[in-house]
Amino acid sequence: MSELVQIRKKAQLTLPASVRQKLDIEEGDFVDVQIKDGDIVLKVMKLVSKEQAWFWTERWQSGEREAEEDIRSGRVHKFENSDDAIAFLHKQSNSKKKDAGSE
Asked: Would you kindly state where each structural domain of the chain is located, as residue ranges?
């Protein structure tokens, strides 16, 4: 896709509607501007509130990807209630302690 735009007063330019729609760019969004090999590269940035920033850390996102893979692969357990879930976790913990002790 290629679009020709003209630089206006104060170095302003308007992104064509087709570009905005394809990239889901909305009024108020931010754009990161970089120069790479003599070209201008624009990267659309969606900012999140400080209260939600933890969710987008690499550590959290890595855990999200791991959880999604576990779900897709069927490595999940369902419980009737919280007591059953806690009993399962205790059993898993005790099993790992025994395995570590036998090494």
From this structure: 9-45, 50-101
Domain 9-45 has CATH 2.10.260: yes
Q: What is the pTM of this model?
A: 0.47
At 30-40, the pLDDT tens digits run 999 999 999 99
For residues 28 and 44, what is the distance between their CA atoms, to the nearest angstrom? 11
CA distance 60 to 76: 19
Q: What tokens does 21 get?
A: 């729609």
